[in-house]
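Box S2. Input/output pair 1.
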Amino acid sequence: MSKSKIISLNQWMLNEIGRTYAERLKLNLKKDGSFASGSLEKSITWRINGSKLIIESAEHLWWVSKGRKKGKMPPVSNIKKWVSTKNIQIKGRTQEQTAWIISKSIAKKGTKGTNVIERTKSEVLTNNPQINEIVKQMGNDFIKTLKLTF
């Protein structure tokens, strides 16, 4: 196979993985109940830079997936937006007070992540017949060199 065909195939493969990953990630976020305003879902995009597939999203995808360790409060303004979107309010408290209470609770207890980033990567790279066939043809070295960057 000529070098230009290999490069074209790699580009096609990266595009296919990027498209599939973005679609599956959005679906998994909904399945996990990690959906409020839709801004996180809308922020998910992908692009290719050389041989790297770069997945881009709003910063809070990281916190949804990995969780947050106890000890530090998340920005109250971000929690306030979430509380407002979800229409959450503790009885007898304003939404601003509710956001403050939730932020303090997160600082005290932390949050458990959904592992949606890694779970989606695994699903896309193992459960997609088109991608599996090409990986067989190209060898597992392609997957080992694949870098999903967030």
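Box S3. Input/output pair 2.
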Amino acid sequence: MGAHGPTADIRHRQLRGSKLRQRGKRYYSSRMVINVFDHKAFFAAIESRRRDQHLSWPALAAAVWDQSRVLNEQHDDHPISPATIRKMADGTSCQHALFLLRWLDVPPEAFIALPQPGTVGIPLPSANPSQRLRWSLRKLYGELNAARTARGDTWEQTANRLQCTPSQLTGLRTAKFTTGMELAMRITQALRRPAADFVYAASR
């Protein structure tokens, strides 16, 4: 591919985006090319490891759930189902994705074709059997809102850049559990922050 092909254009857009307003070490660019989380690549990695370990779908679900076996014994939480995992090629919630990312031991940026600089190779927090990885949606909302305010943008303008609706973004402030994995990763990439900054090991 020549110097004027799609790759060169992406690099040019990223360079221009990096020159926009800086807020501390956080960036939010209207011209940034945000590559989405690849659900099919994520599912392919799950399927490859499942086959390598000769696990049936129910056995995989059990193995994933057993990562938090102590926590599970303390609370009557509903385990992840084989059907939920099998549907991940078509999309999943950000919280369900963490179950499998923990099992794969990879950060979600591994499934973005061209992740933003500074977001690559940052591992998710470690969790022991008495913990479960969770997204802090309130923190995600707070950082996005701060970047939006710094730019003087409306929620509608921000939603247009992230290819979603304003209510999907404002709803993060009060969301009790989850949002879509694709949207969560669009936001982290727009902020040029690794997903690990918004994930924690929860004991409940």
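Caption for Box S3: The chain is about 45% helix and 5% strand. The CA atoms of residues 97 and 181 lie 7 Å apart.
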